[in-house]
Amino acid sequence: MNFIYCFESEWLKKKRSLASWLVIYGAFFTPVFIIIARIIHSSPLYAASLKADYWQLLWKSATESLAIFLLPMGAIMAVTLIVQLEYKNNTWKQLHAVPQRFTTIFFAKLFVILLMMVQFFLLFDIGVYLCGTIPYVIKGISLPKAPLPLLFLLKENFNYFITCLPIVALQYLLALHFKNFLVSIGAGFLLWVAALAMLSWPYWYINPYTYCPGYFTGVSGKHNPGISIQVLSMTYFFVFITAGYVLYLTKKEKG
Predict the structure, then answer these.
(1) If 0-12 CB within 10 Å is exposed, 13-18 middle and 19+ buried, where does residue 185 land?
(2) CA–CA separation, 246 vs 244, rounded Å?
(3) Hey, what long-range contacts does 226-229 have (CB within 8 A, 24 or more apart)?
């Protein structure tokens, strides 16, 4: 029960925060531009609506910017901002004074971040669905005949969620360990830029920030690491979370 109460408290803290708005704006950023582009250039809409893989093609088109830019940078920013709420309001000492174990506090904040990631994907899926319907309604064109591939969307959402977990875990470690938010954001940004440059390298998988764009581009098929990206992602996630947990418990000055 203590964990539930702590989780509820952490969830309430993030409401109306910049991190909360970042999730909403980030999820609808690409869909809004796709909707506008489809309304302006509506001539291909009818032909596209007749394709059996209509939703799969639309999803792949929408996820290009998601995988390469929005998801990695969004995770870096959102995780850092959630932890910075305590530093910004100077409330770490108050938080540690409440009758909650440090373990409970650590994992309650982590679950809030993970739930925000799930929220991001749900909103993004809604945005993609609107991309595939709103332009047709506005232009008076019959809606696509292809059924919504729920299993395909569930699988893709799951894979992208898994591949972004190492970023979440490492950024969480950095944000808890360094008071200056520029350190964690700067480190995350450098690792992300390095990841984009490493995708053509045979040992790209050394950098876990490559997994989101790597999954989209299918780089694992060109330079196979001998193990799935999902397994590598989970391995890095548990390593970073364990390291972050130990550092958090042993840190003398916690905020």
Answers:
(1) buried
(2) 6
(3) 229/159, 229/162, 229/163, 229/205
Q: What is the CB-side half-sphere exposure of residue 108 using CA atoms within 13 A?
A: 21
With beta carbons less than 8 A apart as the criterion, state whether 74 and 102 touch: no
Q: What is the pTM of this model?
A: 0.91
Nearest to 49 by CA among 147, 115, 116: 147
- Nearest by Cα to 6 from 93, 92, 99, 79: 99
**Type and span of the H or E element at 74:** helix 71-88
- The domains of the chain are located at 2-250
- Let me know how long the chain is: 255
Q: Taking phi first (over 0 means left), then psi (-120 to 50 degrees means alpha), and beta for anything else, what does residue 181 get?
A: alpha
Q: Which tokens go with 186?
A: 């700067």
User: Helices then strands (H, E): number in the chain?
Assistant: 13, 0
- Residue 109 contacts residue 175 (beta carbons within 8 Å): no
Q: What is the residue-level pLDDT of the chain in tens, covering all 255 positions? A: 678 878 787 778 777 778 888 898 999 999 999 999 999 988 888 888 889 999 999 999 899 888 989 999 999 999 998 888 777 666 666 766 676 788 888 998 999 999 999 999 999 999 999 999 999 999 988 899 889 999 999 999 999 999 999 999 999 999 988 888 889 999 999 999 999 999 888 889 899 999 999 888 887 666 777 788 999 999 999 999 999 999 988 877 655
Distance between CA atoms of residues 215 and 201, nearest Å = 15
Residue whose structure tokens are 């047709």? 136
